[in-house]
Every structure is written in C-alpha cells, then in structure tokens.
Amino acid sequence: MPHAPEPDEDDLDAIPPPQPVFHVEQALLGALLLDPHRLDDVTGIAADSFSTAAHAALYAAITTLPLPDPAEHAKNTKWLERVLATGREQVRGLTASYLHTLVQVCPWPRHAPAYARMVEAEHARRRLQTAAERLLQTVHDVSLPHPVQAVLAEADALAAVVDDIAARFPPRAGVLPRTAAPSPPVAPDYTEAVEEEQMLLATATANPADIESVLWLLPDDLTLPLHAGLWQCLTALARRREPVDPVTVLWEAQQRGLLDDGSEPGEVLHLLAEPAGSVEHWGERALQRSLLATADRTGRRIEAYAGDTANTPFQLVVGARRSLADIGAVRTRWQHAAGTVPTPQPRPEPTTRAGPPTTTAAYTGRAARATR
Questions:
Q1: How far is CA 14 from the centre of its chain?
Q2: pLDDT by residue (tens digit) across 178-209?
C-alpha cells in the first residue's frame, strides 16, 4: 500500500539539509561563546563571511561587544545575554536555546582558528560564484548602451576577487580545479551575426587593401566555420599580395577544403558579391561578439568551479586566473581595434645612493617596484 504523506511532509522534505559550512560556523560561534578571548586568534573573517543571517548577527555581536572578564564569564551568563540581545537587533528569531545549542555542538574551543579558516574558505567560494554570476548577467543584459565596457568592468571586478582570494590563500603550483561541466549557455540568435559576417567578407573582398587595418580580427572570432575559413582565405591572399575577388577567394577556399562540407560554389560567390559599409566597422562588430562570447564562457567556467564545493580556494584561484586569461587576450585585440591601447609609461632612471637607504626610502622603493 503506498505511503500517504502526513500534512506538510512534502514541504519538510523539500528543505535541503545544512551544508558542512553551517556546522563549521556553529562550532566557531560555540567556541567564541564558551571562550570569547579566543577571538584574538580568529582572523580573515567578518560578519558577512557567514552563510546565514543568524550566524552573521551573532558574530557581529561577539566582535562588537567588550569581551567579558574570564572569571566572571565562568560564573554567570550576563555577557551571553548581551550577545543575544545585540544579535536580536538584527535577527529577531534568535533564542537563548540556540546559543546553548552552539555551545553544545562545539567539539574543541581551541580549534576556533581552524574553524575560522574554513568559514573564510567557504566565503571565498561564494564571493567568486557571485562575481561570476554578475559577469554573466552583464554579458546578457541587452539594455546596456556600452556592453563591452560594462563586461570588461565586471571582468576586472571578478579578477579583483580572485586576487583577494589569492592573497588569503596563495595558490599552490600545479593544483588545478576539479573539472566541472559549466551550465549550458543560452542558445544565441545567430541571424544578425551571420548577416554582418557576410557583409564583412563581401566588403573585404571588394576592398582587400582594408584587410591590413583589421589584423586584430581572427578567424575564431566569427560564428560560422565557413565564415572563419573564408576570412582565412582573404587574409592569406592579402598577405601574399595576390589578386582578391570572389573567384580567387572561392579557389582559395577549395584549396583549403572549405567546400568539403557541402557548401555550394555559387552560394559562396553570391555571399562575397554584396559589399556594404566598411571592413573596420564589421570587423569591430564581429570582435565585440567574440569578446562577449568569451566572457560568457569564462563566467560559466568559473561559476562551475565555484559551484563545486570540493574545489579548494587554491584550486579556484588557479582555475579562475586561467579562465580570465581568455578574456585578457580578446581584450588586448579589442583595445587595438578601438584605438584604446594604454601607452606604456617610461620608467624613471635608477638613482645612485652613497649609503644604505633609510627605512622610509626603502619602503618607497619597494612599493614603486611592486607597482611596475
């Protein structure tokens, strides 16, 4: 006979069990409630490092209230009552019984620094995941007037999070994140991209002298394999200083095996025979799409890494930096296309000192070298 669920049983089953970090946070808070002076050994975390509002409110109360006298704390619960009252200002649902639970579940108060390090590691993972999600949201925000600048700003914000995590958890050489399959991207509408790439190819065929001005555009920037191959044909003919027209491009395409996929020669000739606009304009449009697509892949990969709780902060740093390098490569080409390549600043000539530098001068010198 099938089991008939009790009222609200389905709702209870839908509540996921607490993650391991929840129990770690309980152990840390219990240790600090038992022995508040162990707070001096806890570093690297703040109230927002905790995964629940209740835990964040309790940690904020513990860190803001004056620490009690150890002898007095062992005799009465006055300080605990102040912690509870302060925490309730942020989370009304806190109870004295929950503070008792925290004290009971703490295995060893002296392990508080280790518990804090675990909380810090989990917070780093959540921060990285949030930054990757923001990058993806920006990539797909069609309302942005300047999508490239907005996406690059979010990529910089994501890189800053990675740098901060690396400062807290220096990556170990050769430690790669466990491979996690990123979530499938939203199927893009290639209609506009295909049309613009066709105009790029036709306009470049009609104006081969302009190809040299868009050498920052690579075949992989184009969405269709046929278009990427035809762009290779055009750049190769231009580089060899050979005649360029629809017929010579078609012949080059045949020599490269581009017609083996069933593309009709007549369709290729028709594609190359309708120029419009400028090569540089269509090239920038193709490169912009490539940059946004690269940012999308990077964001999804980092999001997948951060979503795998088995990956350590060391692994997340290594994987995220490798992924961000893909955006950096396209970004450099975009700067060349947009004419915004930063001008390198000349380095000052080294100065000769008669004696050892003073402490302040030595620090200034090291800081200057570190920023170069």
A1: 30
A2: 776 676 666 666 789 999 999 999 999 999 99
pTM of the model: 0.81
CA pair distance 274, 259, nearest whole angstrom: 20
Give the integer Cα–Cα distance in Å for 29 and 32.
5
Residue 318 class from Cβ within 10 Å (0-12 exposed, 13-18 middle, 19+ buried)? buried
Mark 114-138 as b/e (b = at least 16 C-beta within 10 Å): ebbbbbbbbbbbebbbebbbebbeb
The band of 356, judged by pLDDT with boundaries at 50, 70 and 90, is very low
**In Å, what is the CA distance from 361 to each residue of 358, 365, 367, 371?**
5, 6, 10, 16
**Using an 8 Å Cβ cutoff, are 33 and 83 in contact?**
yes
- What token pair was written down for 222? 């184009």
Q: What does 328-362 look like in DSSP terms, one character per residue?
A: HHHHHHHHHHHT-PPPPPPPPPPPP-SSPPPHHHH
- Could you give the residue ranges of the DSSP H alpha helices within the chain? 9-13, 20-34, 53-64, 70-75, 78-88, 96-105, 112-139, 147-168, 191-206, 225-239, 246-255, 265-271, 279-307, 313-338, 359-370
Residue type, 368: A
User: In angstroms, rounded to a whole number, what is the distance separating the alpha carbons of residues 175 and 315?
Assistant: 6
Can you tell me whether residue 216 is helix, strand or coil? coil
CA 13 to centroid of chain Cα atoms: 33
Hey, what's the torsion of the CAs at 248, 253, 259, 263, to 10 degrees?
-60
